[in-house]
Amino acid sequence: MIRVAIIGQGLVATHFAVGLERLKNNEIPDHGVPLGTRLPYKYSDIEIAASYDIDESKIGKSLYEIAKKSYEGPGEIPRALKDIYVRRGIHLASTRGLPIKARGREEESDLKIAVEEIIGEWSELGVDVVVNVMTTEPVEAVGSIEKLHRGFENADLTASQTYAYMAALYSSRYSSAAFINAIPSPIANDPAFIELYKNSRAVVFGDDGATGATPLTADLLEHLYERGRRVLGVAQFNIGGNMDFYALNMPERNIMKKITKSSMIEDILGYHAPNYIRPTGYLEPLGDKKFVAMIIEYLSFGEFKDELYIVARINDSPALAGLLVDLVRLGKLAIEREAYGTVYEVNAFYMKKPGPPGSKVISKFHAYLKLLKWLKLRDHRIPE
Ligand SMILES: NC(=O)c1ccc[n+]([C@@H]2O[C@H](COP(=O)([O-])OP(=O)(O)OC[C@H]3O[C@@H](n4cnc5c(N)ncnc54)[C@H](O)[C@@H]3O)[C@@H](O)[C@H]2O)c1
């Protein structure tokens, strides 16, 4: 069994909960789950043990009630979700400026008490994996483990840093856990957290789930690199109508996405090419199906200039939810292998900014092969 605690019961978490139950019931095929049935864990081994949010309109509601309101996919909402209720998490002002009535446990008692309570719940429930899909927050890496401990003592950390710290505390006291950081906060890219996780016999994957146009751009750049073409520039923008885009419309949150996407071009091409890659706007009628447009200009043989034009509508939340079905199983596997700290082979494929700090972004083609190697699997299409 893999027992999962969710942080942030928003659209991604709801798509994950609904999709997972429907997969277990054999109601949907597993498209969009990269490793599918090739991992030693079955879909039915995954169980959502708890979910945390700070939105007053969600706390105390079942995942079924939440899905009824926000899930727009085909099929019935699985009844098993009626048994999982959203618990109050830790707020630490993570939703400042957003139209959400939020309240965290620390606002009702005190941060230390709230932390101990939640860790106690994880230990009672036997949590193995914590999945962080809360609202993107503005935050920088802490840097050193001393500063990280001090930050925790003085309640100076952000919400996702505090949850990540809690997963390490839980691992050192009870049993090893994996923290999957699918949002841009630098956790797997923070030397302080890597050291903390190694010391605590815990695993962190991150940062920022690689969905949408970013992995596609990475693979297109790889193609151009391998063909010896010279990329002149990349312009890529996204407009969406979900809460995530609403939050990313705020400059201090938008900068987080720029950071997790910025090193990609130079890492893959080996040189700098002028670029503009980030979410650019919120337009409510687009809903969760974002609009992506991209132009890549490059020089071909004889200095002839070619242009690639890509226009797409991409369902945002299901894309990350499908990756999470792999990531929770890989988290459990990494714990079994005692791969404490982080695992680059996992991050390089599933994340926009793969940890540990200083790691290169590589194309998803290469990352996929690296991941298979780590798993001791092979791609049957490639001759030995
Ligand atoms: N394809 C994708 O959708 C994709 C890809 C990469 C990363 N992400 C990231 O995943 C995250 C979730 O995206 P979403 O579309 O589900 O957003 P969402 O706004 O629908 O959900 C976020 C949830 O987190 C909750 N939350 C905020 N602060 C919290 C806290 N301190 N504790 C617990 N819960 C808290 C909010 O109340 C909300 O319910 C975002 O940070 C987004 O940038 C999404």
List keywords for this structure.
2 domains, 384 residues, 6-stranded parallel β-sheet, 10 strands, binds nicotinamide-adenine-dinucleotide, Rossmann fold, Dihydrodipicolinate Reductase, domain 2, 13 helices, alpha/beta
Describe this structure in words.
The protein has 13 helices and 10 strands. The chain is of the alpha/beta class. The model has no long low-confidence stretch (mean pLDDT 96). Bound molecules: nicotinamide-adenine-dinucleotide. Nicotinamide-adenine-dinucleotide binds at residues 7-13, 52-55, 58, 89-91, 94-95, 100, 133-136, 159, 182-183, 208-209, 211-212, 242-244, 316-317, 319-320.
Instruction: Name the strands of the widest sheet in spatial order.
Output: 3-2-1-4-5-6
Taking all Cα atoms into account, the compactness measure Rg is 20 Å
Work out the number of β strands.
10
**So what's the overall shape?**
globular
SS summary, helix count: 13
**What do the pLDDT scores average to?**
96
SS class:
alpha/beta
Please name the fourth-level CATH homologous superfamily of the largest domain: NAD(P)-binding Rossmann-like Domain
From the 3D structure, determine the CATH topology of the largest domain: Rossmann fold
Overall helicity: 25-40%
Small-molecule components bound: nicotinamide-adenine-dinucleotide
Helices and strands, in N-to-C order? EHEHEHEHHEHEHEHHHEEEHHH
- Number of self-contained structural domains: 2
Strand percentage lies at 15-25%
